[in-house]
Design a protein that fits this description.
The structure holds two protein chains of two kinds.
Chain A: H1 16-23, H2 26-35, H3 38-55, H4 57-60, E1 81-87, E2 90-104, E3 111-134, E4 138-147, H5 166-202, H6 204-219, H7 222-231, H8 239-270, H9 273-280, H10 285-293, H11 298-321, H12 333-339, H13 343-348, H14 354-376
Antiparallel strand pairs in A: 1-2, 2-3, 3-4
Helix pairs in contact in A: 2-14, 3-5, 3-14, 5-6, 5-8, 5-11, 5-12, 6-8, 7-8, 8-11, 9-10, 11-12, 11-14, 12-14
Chain B: E1 6-19, E2 25-39, E3 44-48, H1 55-63, E4 70-75, E5 78-79, H2 85-92, E6 95-98, H3 112-122, H4 128-141, H5 158-170, E7 176-180, H6 188-205, E8 208-213, H7 216-220, E9 225-230, E10 233-239, H8 240-245, H9 250-257
Parallel strand pairs in B: 3-8, 3-9, 6-7, 7-8
Antiparallel strand pairs in B: 1-2, 1-4, 4-5, 9-10
The chains are: A alpha+beta, B alpha/beta.
GO molecular function (chain B): ATP binding; ATP hydrolysis activity
Pfam family, one (chain B): ABC_tran
InterPro entries (chain B): AAA+_ATPase, ABC_transp_ATP-bind, ABC_transporter-like_ATP-bd, ABC_transporter-like_CS, Oligopep_ABC_C, P-loop_NTPase
Chain lengths: ~375, ~325
């Protein structure tokens, strides 16, 4: 890895590629290495797309999260078609879906829906629909996709047992679940990095106190702990307050692993001469810790960060699924999956599992990105 | 006689090894036990001795990277060891350290600009273009092209890294530089360049050096005086010429005999003195001379009882009786 260079103070002029390599910052080197990891790169794009969906959630979802159509409960997904040939005037171009015909079973009273090719529902891009405020600021009524007539049914992923559009709900749930994961992990990281750094850097009794605290938290089984904390929340609490409290609870339990990792790194680095030297240069303890030492493994921290988001998302999903986390009208993946927890419902409506698929996809994506980052984090090792 | 720039008085540094249940130290290692030293402005004092003799600990205590257990370090008459951290900070720029390991002493995530300029940034002394000018000036001084300012240490060889180390130490215009084995990690060919650089910088900037080394051949050309350290104590302190010609302590003699002689025609004269590996236990120092058990001139009953003082720069009870062999003149 070391370049062949003579010890002569004024060497020959370096070649362009050498300049590129020797002047590359840590960030650039990591990016070059990360790009080689295909799966991680694809996952990163997927996550980027998810972030866009989260930001533009009201626009992307065909209906709002309050939309409810009691005419169509547990209706199956429709197929989006680009043209139809058997309409009244032969071949016709244009986005559309087939409407539904319903039929009630006389014995079980269960209503089943069938696609009806004769009932054409025109679908458009950037259609007028329900009004909303983008980013909570800009009043708009356009939706990325939706039925041209708001009253028409267009349920690409089917509907829930309550008659809500699963796709719209999924888009809103992604915002809630992914942001719980990301915000929760950021909170946990703040705690973990500060406590881990202090613990490893100063050592002695400070280290002892922090480590015993971590052991205490780690020794309590996490699901009962979440449940206990969540059960203590007043039932009257609004969805927003509940969302933040749940996020904080998850973070308070999750910081320990990272604190351990950071502590280990600080312990290892503490005896390096550049740390002593930084102190002798007149840096304060905080400056040595966060300016000199932390950057040495910031890429590892970022990798660990993306690796721990899935845990957080799964925790929220589990908690909400058990009915102790978020509750309707708030929608998260866990809340959505509650619908799918009864076999009698699921057997007739397998599309209710789509949110579960979404969880798997996002969790895998975060894991691949984390893996890629971790491998890329040490460009000097190759 | 000029006033000393730095004075070390009866300095002790002990490291706790084991504590009892109450947190009291029960066993401790004596790294430095009772060192007295004085450096006059402009001189180079070499501190030599084998690994583990406490020379690095002594250097670290002088720059303030290690706390003294007792005794004092005086800089221009001011006692640094009694100072609180905040007062001591003013002296950090006066006494700087050049580290031994050119790899672990440079932050791999910093560019040379950040490494060399860090002392100025940390104290808020310079920033922006002034910072850049001073870093560039310092890089030129130590023989590095300022064009390399935005490169990372991984792109440099050991010798170049050591130049960076020196630049970082000197950028705050110190008076005293503690160089902890600055060349022992370098190739022999590069070694001479760095030593020459240190010598040039000394005369240009009027620096005083405390040069720590285990290699007597390196010291010979650089130092005005040499202090030989053994087991946390100074056993001999003399001018370089005197010490090399007429060592007065048996340990110094043994060190001298280990210096390779480049002239084959002189081979065989003197001969190597091989010391047995009987190092005393640093947590339980023996009475009398710490070197007695390894010394070929030791006399039972005289060398292993009572404290032996440093007299006329030698810590040996038999110094008057012995006729010891120095380095055979290598320049002919």
């Amino acid at each position: 890895m070391t370049l062949k260079e003579s010890d002569a103070p004024d060497g020959m002029t370096p070649s362009p590629s050498e300049v590129r390599r020797t002047r590359a910052s840590q960030r650039q080197l990591v990016w070059w290495a990360f790009k080689k990891h295909r799966l991680a790169l694809v996952s990163a794009w997927l996550l980027a797309a998810m972030l866009v969906v989260i930001a533009l959630c009201e626009f992307v979802a065909p209906f709002s999260d309050r939309h409810r159509d009691s005419e169509y409960t547990t209706a199956p997904p429709q197929v989006l078609k680009l043209w139809d040939t058997d309409g009244p005037d032969g071949f016709r171009f244009g986005l559309h879906v087939d409407g539904y015909t319903s039929e009630q079973d006389p014995r079980s009273l269960r209503i089943t829906y069938e696609a009806d090719p004769d009932d054409r529902v025109d679908v458009g891009l950037f259609v007028k629909g329900e009004e909303y405020e983008l980013f909570g600021l800009i009043p708009m009524d356009r939706h990325l996709i939706g039925p041209k007539d708001v009253e028409d049914p267009m349920y690409l992923f089917g509907t829930t047992t309550d008659g809500q559009d699963l796709l719209s709900q999924l888009v809103y749930a992604t915002r809630v679940s992914a942001s719980v994961g990301i915000i929760g992990v950021l909170l946990a990281f703040l705690l973990g990095i500060v406590l881990g750094a202090v613990s490893g850097y100063f050592g002695g009794w400070i280290d002892n106190v922090v480590q015993r605290l971590i052991e205490l938290i780690m020794s309590v089984p996490s699901i009962p702990l979440w449940l206990g904390l969540a059960a203590a929340l007043p039932a009257t609490m609004g969805p927003v307050g509940r969302y933040f409290i749940i996020t904080t609870i998850l973070a308070l339990v999750a910081w320990t692993g990272l604190a351990r990792e950071v502590r280990g790194r600080f312990l290892a680095l503490r005896s390096e001469e550049f740390v002593t030297s930084a102190r002798l240069d007149g840096s304060s303890h905080a400056r040595v810790m966060f300016r000199h030492m932390l950057p040495s493994f910031s890429s590892h921290v970022i990798a660990a960060l993306s690796l721990s988001i899935p845990g957080m998302i799964l925790a929220e999903t589990a908690l909400s699924w058990l009915g102790m986390g978020l509750r309707p009208p708030a929608v998260s993946w866990g809340v959505q999956l509650q619908d799918a927890s009864k076999w009698s419902v699921l057997s007739g409506a397998p599309w209710l599992l789509i949110p579960g698929l979404c969880v798997v996809l996002v969790v895998l994506a975060f894991n691949f990105v984390g893996d890629g980052l971790r491998d890329a984090a040490d460009p000097y090792k190759h | 006689m000029t006033d000393p720039l730095l004075e070390v008085r009866d300095l002790h540094v002990r490291f706790p090894v084991r504590r009892n249940l109450l947190g009291r130290t029960t066993v401790e290692n004596h790294a430095v036990s009772g060192v007295d030293l004085a450096l006059v402005p402009g001189e180079t004092l070499a501190l030599v001795g084998e690994s583990g003799c406490g020379k690095t600990t002594l250097g670290r205590t002088i720059v303030g990277a290690q706390k003294a257990t007792s005794g004092s370090v005086l800089f221009e008459g001011e006692d640094l060891t009694a100072m609180r951290d905040r007062d001591r900070a003013r002296y950090r720029r006066q006494i700087r350290m050049v580290f031994q390991d050119p790899f672990s002493s440079l932050n791999p995530r910093f560019t040379l600009r950040q490494i060399i300029g860090d002392p100025l940034v940390a104290t808020g002394e310079a920033r922006g273009s002034e910072l850049e000018d001073r870093v560039a000036e310092m890089m030129r001084r130590v023989g590095l092209s300022p064009d390399y300012m935005d490169r990372y240490p991984h792109a440099f060889s050991g010798g170049q890294r050591q130049r960076v180390n020196i630049a970082r130490a000197l950028i705050v215009n110190p008076r005293l530089v503690v160089a902890d084995e600055p060349v022992s990690a370098l190739d022999v060919s590069v070694r001479a360049q760095i030593l020459n650089l240190l010598r040039e910088l000394q005369s240009e900037l009027g620096l005083t050096y405390l040069f720590i080394s285990h290699d007597l051949s390196v010291v010979e050309n650089l130092a005005d005086r040499v202090a030989v350290m053994y087991f946390g104590r100074i056993v001999e302190l003399a001018s370089t010429a005197d010490l090399y010609e007429r060592p007065q302590h048996p340990y110094t003699e043994a060190l001298m005999s280990a210096v390779p002689i480049p002239d084959p025609s002189l081979k065989g004269r003197g001969g190597r003195i091989l010391l047995p590996d009987e190092l005393p236990d640093p947590s339980n120092p023996p009475p009398g001379c710490a070197f007695a058990r390894r010394c070929r001139h030791a006399v039972e009953g005289r060398c292993d009882t009572g404290a032996i003082p440093l007299e006329d720069g030698v810590r040996c009870v038999r110094r008057e009786e012995l006729d010891l062999q120095g380095i055979v003149a290598t320049q002919s």
